[in-house]
């Protein structure tokens, strides 16, 4: 462990105070040596360069603390309500209307609570800029490295998921089955768009695109719901759609867990919360954002899953836009392009900021407002995007890619890590003290859910991937054939 929470908190505050309130009596060169890393080598010979570096540092710090709770809500919506909503109808078809609704609402409410725990940790330990820093608070260097590796892998998988969705979208818009265009081309185009949109390193800037993103996903989902509803009304008639309140017959353990993990994936917003809150000018306002986001998510996800399943029946596809019919699905995918790429690029930005900030922790380069900062930033996000493209082409099936991501990583970031942080970092008094009892129960439920998803979901993902390849229901890796 990394010491008691009280000592850690005091150390964090001491570090913050030492950064924000330097002793004016100190020699400038000493201050540069302690606070600005690379600046030290210029102090004796080129003091004007050192002053410029200090100015850049001040400008960079101000630039990365402009996010208010309303923009944070938009950023969280953009990061969260994207791929998740497209997998829900298929999950409902597997689990049945009753279980699908219970799981969707229940996991959503639990995600709001655990996200609140994450926010409390950030408020108590303001130096925790990323989830990996919380890992350090819990388990020292080992926790930092373990959670940091999980953090990077999860975000790269998310970018890969968006790259895959972009490939599916372009393939359906152009109808590559008829035109004969290689799907690898659209995979490359998707990767390039994701890269370009990830260039702005500040979340406050990306929030502007978030409004377009939100309108995009709501319009795409709305169009799909209306189109499938109209189709069902014409034939076979709404009353004749064979949806069921109960799980499908012969439901296997693997199929059930793939569906559950797809719903878990939809509530993965807490993974980026430390990073987003680190840019807020008033971090305590985070509660407004997570409640607004959580309730919006639960409403959209549950309605999307239930309505499209009720209109299409057990043959509903994943992503759900594929179920709207040939012409309407093309239009829906066209409308959904902003959310596919803007949401995906935010994950590139988050993982890029984590790696870049870690490499240049004691340097002005971390603020990405110098030539060296911009050069290293562009190289980094390019590498991340290329790796994501390779993942998308290596696992070319939507639901299983989401399931792998959910099982290995989202299960921890959203469900079983926050309870550990509550016990070790922010709990006040004994676990079963009267004021802690409800919280203890909620944290225990969240922890159990996370562990069950980790074990059961990982096993199910492996089984389903092997089954798909064996039966030939998916294309080969790096294929020109249509995907989705």
Describe it:
With 484 residues, the protein is mainly α. The protein has a single domain (65-469), classed as Hydantoin permease, CATH 1.10.4160. Helices cover 74% and strands 0% of the residues. The chain is built from 17 helices and no strands. It has helices spanning 5-20, 28-35, 47-63, 69-80, 83-95, 97-124, 131-174, 176-179, 183-197, 203-234, 253-266, 273-277, 286-312, 326-359, 371-394, 398-426, 437-471. α4 crosses α14. The longest helix has 44 residues, at 131-174. The radius of gyration is 23 Å and the shape is globular. Belongs to the amino acid/polyamine transporter 2 family. It is a multi-pass membrane protein. Its main location: membrane. Residues 66-462 form the Amino acid transporter transmembrane domain. This is Amino acid transporter transmembrane domain-containing protein.
The fourth-level CATH homologous superfamily is Hydantoin permease
**In percent, how much strand structure appears in the residues?**
under 5%
Biggest pleated-sheet summary:
none
- Tell me the number of helical segments per DSSP (H or I, 4 or more residues long): 17
Q: Give the helix level as a range of percent.
A: over 70%
Radius of gyration over C-alpha positions, nearest whole angstrom: 23 Å
User: How would the global form be characterised?
Assistant: globular
Query: What's the architecture, going by CATH?
Result: Orthogonal Bundle
Distance between the termini: 46 Å
* Number of discrete domains: 1
Q: List segments where confidence is low: pLDDT < 50 over at least 5 consecutive residues.
A: 1-46
Overall pLDDT confidence: 82
Helix-and-strand structural type: mainly alpha
| Main CATH class | Mainly Alpha
| Beta-strand segment tally | 0
User: What is the CATH topology descriptor?
Assistant: Hydantoin permease
What's the order of the H and E elements?
Answer: HHHHHHHHHHHHHHHHH
């Amino acid at each position: 462990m990394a010491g008691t929470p009280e000592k850690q908190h005091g150390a964090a505050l001491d570090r913050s105070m030492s950064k924000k309130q330097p002793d004016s009596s100190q020699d400038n060169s000493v201050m540069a040596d302690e606070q600005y890393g690379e600046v030290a080598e210029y102090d004796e010979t080129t003091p004007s360069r050192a002053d410029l570096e200090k100015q850049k540092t001040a400008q960079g710090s101000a630039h990365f603390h402009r996010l208010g709770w309303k923009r944070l809500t938009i950023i969280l919506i953009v990061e969260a309500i994207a791929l998740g909503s497209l997998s829900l109808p298929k999950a409902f078809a597997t689990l049945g209307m009753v279980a699908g609704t219970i799981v969707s609402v229940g996991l959503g409410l639990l995600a709001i609570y655990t996200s609140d725990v994450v926010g409390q940790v950030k408020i108590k330990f303001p130096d925790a800029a990323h989830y990996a820093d919380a890992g350090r608070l819990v388990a020292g260097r080992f926790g930092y490295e373990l959670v940091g590796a999980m953090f990077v892998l999860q975000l790269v998988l998310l970018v890969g998921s968006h790259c895959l969705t972009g490939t599916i979208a372009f393939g359906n818009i152009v109808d590559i089955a008829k035109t004969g265009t290689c799907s690898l081309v659209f995979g490359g185009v998707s990767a390039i768009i994701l890269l370009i949109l990830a260039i702005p390193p500040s979340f406050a800037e990306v929030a502007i695109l978030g409004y377009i993103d939100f309108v995009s996903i709501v319009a795409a989902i709305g169009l799909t719901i209306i189109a499938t509803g109209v189709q069902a009304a014409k034939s076979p008639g709404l009353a004749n759609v064979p949806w069921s309140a109960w799980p499908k017959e012969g439901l296997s353990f693997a199929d059930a867990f793939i569906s559950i993990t797809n719903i878990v994936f939809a509530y993965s917003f807490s993974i980026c919360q430390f990073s987003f809150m680190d840019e807020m000018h008033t971090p305590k306002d985070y509660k407004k954002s997570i409640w607004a986001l959580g309730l919006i998510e639960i409403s959209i996800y549950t309605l999307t899953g239930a309505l499209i399943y009720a209109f299409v029946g057990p043959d509903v596809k994943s992503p759900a836009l594929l179920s709207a019919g040939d012409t309407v699905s093309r239009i829906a995918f066209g409308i959904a392009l902003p959310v596919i790429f803007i949401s995906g690029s935010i994950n590139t930005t988050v993982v890029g900021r984590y790696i870049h900030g870690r490499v240049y922790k004691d340097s002005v380069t971390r603020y990405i407002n110098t030539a060296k900062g911009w050069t290293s930033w562009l190289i980094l996000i390019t590498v991340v995007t290329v790796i994501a493209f390779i993942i998308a082409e290596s696992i070319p099936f939507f639901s299983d890619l989401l399931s792998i991501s959910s099982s290995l990583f989202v299960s921890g970031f959203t469900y079983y890590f926050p309870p550990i942080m509550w016990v070790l970092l922010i709990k006040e008094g004994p676990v079963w003290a009267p004021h802690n009892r409800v919280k203890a129960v909620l944290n225990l439920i969240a922890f159990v859910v996370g562990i069950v998803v980790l074990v059961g979901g990982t096993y199910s993902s492996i089984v389903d991937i092997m089954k798909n390849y064996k039966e030939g229901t998916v294309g080969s890796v790096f294929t020109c054939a249509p995907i989705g």
